[in-house]
Prior knowledge:
Blueprint: H1 3-15, H2 29-32, E1 40-45, E2 50-54, E3 60-61, H3 66-78, H4 99-103, H5 114-127, H6 130-142, E4 147-148, H7 150-159, H8 161-172, H9 180-191, E5 193-195, H10 197-203, H11 223-236, H12 242-248, E6 253-255, E7 260-265, E8 269-274, H13 285-298
Antiparallel strand pairs: 1-2, 1-8, 3-5, 4-5, 6-7, 7-8
Helix pairs in contact: 1-13, 3-5, 5-8, 5-9, 6-10, 7-9, 8-9, 11-12
Amino acid sequence: MQFQPLLEEIVAELRADLGREGxxxxxxxxxxxxxxxxxxxxLRTREGExxxxxxxxxxxxxxxxxxLFTLTLGMRExxxxxxxxxxxxxxxxAFNSLVQxxxxxxxxxxxxxxxxxxxxxxxxxxRLDAKTELLKLxxxxxxxxxxxxxxxxxxxxxxxxxxxxxxNFMKSFGRIDxxxxxxxxxxxxxxxxxxxxxxxxxxxxxxxxxxxxPCSSEQVLxxxxxxxxxxxxxxxxxxxxxxxxxxxxxxxxxxxxxxxIVAVVPDRLTLCVWSPALAPSGNSLLGMKALELFTARTGLxxx
Length: 303
Ligand code: GLU
């Protein structure tokens, strides 16, 4: 299949809509300054063929897409024990909601809502130098040095009152072992990783390769673990719009409020789209449209 012309066609088609609809995330001040009229798309096949178009090399704040990598480290470090304090059901609530945590005794519904990622981060902090390991993992996966955007991390730390509340609430149930401040420092930095579409399409490559590293024979996760991440992406990866994504796109996806979305065609390729203006669901508006065009035109879907 010729992917390069297709990606160029999708970007050209959506360019007319740039800046027309949607809102850049404003609750994190450093994100509110990002110009909305940008659109990038990149993919990498299981065999290593790459294609990209638009602003595919512009780094952006990956935000909740980082929850994929935190979960990967968590699965690798803890295996089945990770699920002692973590569910795997869609929440049906906002990504930063406190509501379910009370009735479910501080056990988050899944690793892709904020509470879930904070719980995984806590387990990592108990075992390793989590910030260093996270940087090592993403840099190795995409074959380039990746860094935190310290300004975004500081901006989140200054305004992340809800995340502070979530972490303290879980701690009140005995579900967080470390100091809340230490755990959140790692969580905010993970959200503040800066990567481009091309880097993310590469870095998520192990998810279309049964857990095998995108550019080496190293096994990042077992095949079963990688398939389970894809299952969680499909059911819980796009805030409260997972049903809409399955319906319109038909691929496991993980989005972030920075406007990025990573999608996986199992056994075939990984894809990343980015456009900062968000739909009310918190997902990139043009990103979602781009993915919909991609699956409609290629027929690549898990259904
Ligand atoms: N850093 C953001 C927060 O914790 C992540 C939000 C997101 O991308 O879903 O609120």
